Amino acid sequence: MDVKNLLKTYGYDLSYSFDDNRCAKALKKHLGNAKFNEFWNYVDSIISHFGEEDVEVRIREYIGNDIKHLKILLSGQIIISVKLIQTIIKSIKTINLNDTLRILELGGSDGWAAEYVYKSIQVNPIIEVVDLNQLSGSSKENIKLINSNYNDFTSVNKYDIVYSVLGTSYKDIDILLNCINRNIATGGYVYLGLRIQPYDYEDFIKKLEDNGFQKQEEHLEIVKVTKDTGTEDLPVFKFKSKSLPVDN
């Protein structure tokens, strides 16, 4: 399906991911010169004081309820999420799917990725999206947005597939894994697209195995994302509950 048009219905512009100048011009037009400069001075300030850690949280607090500001910023990076979710969709299509399928997305905000998954697979699953930073989003009958943090979320009805795209930082990965453990069905599949360093891959794989998950045949796929500012490699981890044998 046409992801560019789907994103547009949610207020994102995919073209900004390939042209930082165009993204900056859109933000300057929205904010005006003074507020534009004030915003980037603030970003530079928090990075110089605190480093890259929790920058996104602080930026969201600064932006507040200005959803257009937020979505212009997110548009500048959204190609990364698109590439990761496309890799996850490709893998989901290789497993047995049916209309009773229950899918959980952790960190899906307004549900655009959930709708992309829904429209890309040949069944009609129930998809629930858990995120504390939710924006108003999908009106699809089979997609439900749940405003919750990972620690507080537990579903009575478990999920056949759980996925997350940039849904947490690596320092908080145990919170994400605990949420998955509480909510995944026996034999369920886990797909995680994360921004973590290559030297942490083996440690993370061990965490997954210690949490009762087993590698799928291609348990780690590196997704290369190219923007006008450079290229970034991001991992997608693909695991399955040990309760059932891994598909050959």
Counting DSSP H or I runs of 4 or more residues, the number of helices is 9
The tally of domains stands at 2
CATH architecture of the largest domain: 3-Layer(aba) Sandwich
Strand content: 15-25%
Q: Approximately how much helix is present in the residues?
A: 40-55%
- Give the integer mean of the pLDDT values: 89
Give a count of the beta strands, DSSP E runs of length 2 or more: 7
* Element-by-element helix/strand order: HHHHHHEHEEEHEHEE
CATH homologous superfamily grouping of the largest domain:
Vaccinia Virus protein VP39
Tell me the overall shape.
Answer: globular
End-to-end distance = 28 Å
Which fold does the CATH topology of the largest domain refer to? Rossmann fold
Name of the level-1 CATH class of the largest domain: Alpha Beta
The major sheet is characterized as: 7 strands, mixed
What structural category arises from helix and sheet content? alpha/beta
Task: Provide tags for this entry.
disordered C terminus; Rossmann fold; 40% helix; alpha/beta; 248 residues; globular
Write up this protein.
The protein has about 250 residues and is an alpha/beta fold. It folds into two domains: about 5-75, no CATH class; about 80-240, Vaccinia Virus protein VP39 (Rossmann fold, 3-Layer(aba) Sandwich), CATH 3.40.50.150. About 40% of the residues lie in helices and about 25% in strands. The chain is built from nine helices and seven strands, in the order ααααααβαβββαβαββ. The chain has a seven-stranded mixed sheet, with helices on both faces. A hairpin with a 2-residue loop joins strand 6 and strand 7 (about 230-240). Helix 6 (about 80-90) packs parallel to helix 7 (about 110-120). The protein is globular and about 55 Å long. It starts with a helix and ends in a 7-residue tail after the last strand.
